[in-house]
Amino acid sequence: MRSPLTNPFQPGSDVVPDVWAGRIEQLSDWHDVLRPRRHAGLYETGRTILGEPGTGKSSLVRRIARDAAEAGDWVTPQVRMPSGADPLKLVASAVLRLADKAGLAGSTRKGVLDLLARVEQVAVTGFSVAVRGAEGPEPSTALFELLVELGQAAIRQDAVVLIHIDEVQNITDEAALSQLLIALGDALSHEVDVDLPGGVSVSRYLPIAVYLTGLPDFEDMAGARKGATFARRFRTVTLAALDEGDLLEALQPFVMAGWETADGDGGVGTVRMSPEAARAVVALCCGEPFLFQLAGQRAWNADTSPVVSEGDVVEGWRGAEGEASAHVERVLGRLPDREHEFVTAMAALAPSERTLTRIAEAMGMVSATQIGAVSRRLDTVRGIVDRGKPYTFRNRAVEAYLTTDWPRVG
Fold first, then answer.
1. What is the pLDDT of residues 76-105, one digit of tens each?
2. Among 320, 341, 340, 346, which Cα is nearest to 407's?
3. What is the CATH number of domain 24-238?
4. How far is CA 92 from the centre of its chain?
């Protein structure tokens, strides 16, 4: 009954785990705000979901995309940006697939066919080649115009277009990034006239929603370098650790009714989790979605009995300690030297002494103002600390790693 084949926990990026925890605010934003407003023709910004590795950015938007597709909306595949890739080329390819789904390739309008040909050229040759001396609109304009056509088709077919671009921090070419953001932003703010019953014509926005996901570094790239335009057209959310209550709620089906799974004989069985095991999973993962899935996966695989015990959690976690350490080390390893020095000095202080002044002293600074910008960035951009009185760690895994023997268990 309990085996790797029936395991409902899925650590790793880009998957929507069966055992979902938290992020209710972001899910509600799609279902209750973003989709209804874009569908109704009202303006709503795009969404930028940022966070350190393992916070579940891609999984969150893939779940939103799955929900959208199940509701009949037109959803791009996850457009992941490898380092050094041409963003216009990848996005153009994804939008062309949606255009084909919308039936634009069968249009009798020469302008639409010419536009499709131009975007196909961008999808094949990319931004740099398409810019040089090619006839027709520049790549960003061609992509924008195709999005307008796609949005109008979505209006006619009562659908919403959802575009998801992942690993956006890997777009290092400023010109290409600018073109991409302009094309997407212009599509979000574009208005078209539609005819209503009774001969009334009204102006509305296109039913297009855009999600950008990536590491916190992207805010500097798109915000500081591209100015206020990006900030007006995209709302940025930085994901932090999950609350213990969210994690316990996600495990409640295991504790109360049990989790239905194949029993190996063609039937369905039930696997339960003891309350103590659920609390152990929550304590060990420190609010990190990746570690939550990892702890659950290893506990499930630790035995074959129909009840996951606290002992299963501990035994499974021992085999995952290396992965847990590597997870936190990835977060710390990405920090610039001054930010890394800050969190190390903060961790060395007693919780009640973690004030900016004391942290500055521990770093050998003569004034707290010397590290004010560092502390703000660790709070608002990284989501690692909370600048309260005193300062606290928002990333509980980083705190545990720096102040205790975690992830080791006795």
1. 988 899 888 888 888 888 888 888 887 776
2. 320
3. 3.40.50.300
4. 21
